[in-house]
## 1
Amino acid sequence: MARQKDNPGMVTALALTPSGAITARVECLLLSGRGRLILTGNLKGEAKDSGQVALSLAISRAKRLGIDPAEFQRTDVHFHIPGAPTKDGPSAGLAMLVALVSAMTRKPVDPGIAFTGELSLSGKILGVGGISEKVIAALQGGVTSVYAPTESISEMKKLPKKSQKGFKMIPADSIDSVLDLLFGKPKKSPSSR
């Protein structure tokens, strides 16, 4: 997983499925269109909602990210998470947002970085379950860093210290701080102080 070539619009997510924790590739493809959202990859329930929340947050942060907001009105956004297991929880929300911003800004994200976290419409990153299982899946998939909700990171204490060697957990409370770290802080206009 983490050795795959990094392309804009592709990021690594961590998710819980009925068969256990997995690393999954979230792909975001931008198409000429009318602002439609397309979701594929055996997504159900809250996973589908996460795609809509990610799109709404990206639109609300467009100017801050240096994206023309009108771009969203003439672009269809297609999210795809390949693989057989059903994905029905909200934990792919953060990965979907990062994939969309990556695609819109044409800036790739290192595939050795993974993301997990539910999004609120205010831009908060909410806690999710199964962090220790997700970290084990991440380590097996060659991931070296994980952005995860701050409130969920305490679960890491359950893992043996030796399994965490060379591995970095990055606490995430808000999408703005995550997007700043990944894509750079917004440039202030000459009139702002």
## 2
Amino acid sequence: METTNILIAFYSRNGTTEALAQAIAEGARAAGAEVRLRRVRELVGEEVMAKAPGWSENAKRMNEQYEAPAEADAEWADGIVFGTPTRFGNVSSELKAWVDSLGGLWFQGKLVGKAGSAFTSTSTPHGGNESTLITMFNFMAHLGLVIVPLGYGDPSMFAAGTPYGASSVSGQTSAPPTAQDLEVAKYQGRRVTQIANALKAGRAAS
């Protein structure tokens, strides 16, 4: 059986969303996927980043660790998992800018029928986790992805996360995801891989 390719394209400022991305990658690999972890880049300069303590340092570290996502990564993938911190209950401009760059693939229909899923983090318990996840469903629908929510198909879902995708609350101290948050993220990686694999097999059969 062919390997299932999973792209995890995310933006993270302080490392919380990054930790969820790594757990999703772990779950996907456990399900047999080949994974590409990609961090989208900043849209602002150093003078703006300097106003938020740690932003520049974290960006430098992550940009050295992860390549930026490219159109070729999306075309390669059988499933794409999008990750972002919430920005006023919505998607970060950094991730959205990369999504907007996929117009060429959209026009050619090259993403149609692949799996798509989403994860997020916020600093407050009601800071927009679910609205941000659902907002990402909108652009996934336009790209033709088959949206893969989590539902309650795993025991971890009764302790953390949302039925729409993995999430975490970092508070004002940029706390990392809890162990329960990470279990949900691992489940998301496994689930997206399983669905992406089934969709790939269906496309091959047709």
## 3
Amino acid sequence: MAIDPNRWGIIYNPKAGSRKKQKRWNKIREYMESKQIRFDYVQSEGYGSIERLARILADNGYKTIVVVGGDGAINDAVNGIMTSNVSDKTEIAFGIIPNGIGNDFAKYWGLDDDYKQAIDWIINRRTRKIDVGTCSYCNGKLHIQRYFLNAVYIGLGAKIVQIRSVTRRFWGMQTLSFLSSMFLLGFERKLYRSHLCINGEHIRDNLMTVCIGSARGYGLTPNGVPYNGWLDVSVIYRPQLLQLLSGLWMLLRGHILNHKNVRSYRTKEVKVLRAQNAAISLDGRMLMEMHMPLEVSVLHENLSLIIPK
């Protein structure tokens, strides 16, 4: 049976560490019902389920797929849509209702925790075609391709994701998780022997972190624009402790590219030929069992995002 094109497929991802998971969803559901929205709802059931559910919704003909979650949930849903059997992915309108600890991509578009406003904007259905980043590598047996909207992090940036994941599970609170992550960060100022190829230039050095952003990458690629067909890259060399503190201040103010230990690039493709012992993540999702080289590129305007009016 064909799906009503006006019917939404909604994936709800409970906020990590929250004790009010069902209460939050009940409020969202009541508001959508008050707006007489027709929708089908599924809830994630752990790692990997969001990607599978998004793929099922796309393959079953839903033209509006909405994820209620943070950056990690958005990444999973995008990977589900991009690996579906739908020939033209831009026919699917992708909506976001922020509900996570990390909402960097949603905030880029002016979306915040106000679920009523987010729902109203999805009802308005103003879409814009945006870029989808791709990350290709081998897991030792198969060639793997993953997708992202925000950024790829190598080294310290990915290590922060790991630390926050552990501390969030331990503390269960966003503020304490962030503070404890920053405390532990002081002991994680490692260098990673790396070899990158960007615009034909080979960079062989000991690097602290690399951010390859289609969007702003939590401030590490502040000039990134997710619809211009380019990737912004920030390569960060090892700062001294005081330089690290000044770098964090500049990061919060959006001026990280002015730091003397940061080099920036704009490119269509990045090849990571070596990143010895460095953690790597996409939009907050860690890459596991991967082998170099890692190739990062961008698909121009390959997804239709529902944006604020």
## 4
Amino acid sequence: MRRTMAVVLTLAVSLASGAEAAQVAVGRDVQTDVMVTIYNGNLGLVKDVRQTRLPTGLHETEFTDVAAQIDPTTVHLKSLTDPTGLRILEQNYEYDLLSSGKLMEKYVGRMVRLYNTDGTYLEAKLLSTAGPVFEINGQIHLGHNGRLVLPSLPENLVSKPTLVWLLRNAIAGPQRVEASYLTGGITWKADYVMVINAADTKSDVTGWVTIDNRSGATYGNASLKLVAGDVNRAVEGRRAARLMDVAAKAASNQEAARDFKSEGFFEYHLYTLDGRTTIKDNQTKQLTLMAAADVPVVKQLIYYGAQDYYRTSYGMPMSNQKVGVYFDIKNSKENGLGLPLPKGKIRVYKADASGSQQFVGEDWIDHTPRDERVMIKMGDAFDVVGERTQKEWRKIASNLYEVEWEISLRNHKKNDQTVTVIEPVPGDWQVLSSTHAWEKPAAHTLKFQVPVMKDGASKLTYRVRLRF
């Protein structure tokens, strides 16, 4: 019994001393692979694989060069070589980074040296970093011309964000370990450039992915995936751990065009870069998402009615309203597209008479699946104008009314135009008369297609009976 207890105690002491003595640093120099998945909304998933040799038994491992905006609660470490033989007993995230300000904070209330230009020095007590304030020979000095020298490096300061694990390892020899975690400070967005032909019937469309990395880490030769979709995240009143702020100017960089492969993933879409890329810290990178030529487009002139013009029973005329200009595109394979398009801003250009490309408008598009349509508003027409006049408003009975509207459309362009008129109609309604054919695309909507000759005008008059 005594011998058994002695063996157990000896083993415990040996393990404890080993845990204090054995410490392994695993830096980016032994990194063999890194995979980065970037989501909409300032979130990235990092999988960092490194080849190292871990001692057996208890030991501490420092995993350096991780993102400064890492969420420590999401960190997961596993051995790819021996998944069951490596166990994590304790995990720490060291983010108290070494800086001149941090060094001075650690020495508040302690003795430091102030060196003069002639090499002599004074012993001083640092009272405050604001100023700074020193006590020298019983007197208080607000600032000092000397050079501040600290006697030693304080504890608990690290030069870069570091994950520290207390591990128990079963096998000796090299092994591959993978650390995965979520980090903030890295975002991506989609931008599109569309060039319209002279007839406004065809376009060349190019999509760009813009990645902005301010996470505090560089991901070298990384496998890159992008997730498009609205991923729900739990909202916390307080963060479980402090995330460091990384503020620096971003340097722009563009790479040669590559392909992104798209696949359905859960209720989202996943885009995988064909090849690898390096995403530097504090860098804005652009990659080609897609390119398509001769995409058919349909230009539409749309005159929308005011949503509340029925609310006045006195027939007050509406002010002249603008005619909106839109491009309608079907995201189909037959049209040269067919790739699920992540939401982003689309900018449209067209060549002028001299052949120079000019900016003609921009709009936001939402996540657009394959075979769905994209409506892009360019702006308001200059040479096609509309005017609405309420010709009559009559109360027929209780909650029963008749109203007549006249919409004048004038075309000052050199080509014939067709204007789509969209009119909101409230309540239970019935069209009594109309100068043009009408459609009912929705319960409270009237739709007209009104042709307008070049340098001419057209009038749409319709009368409806309303029951509120």
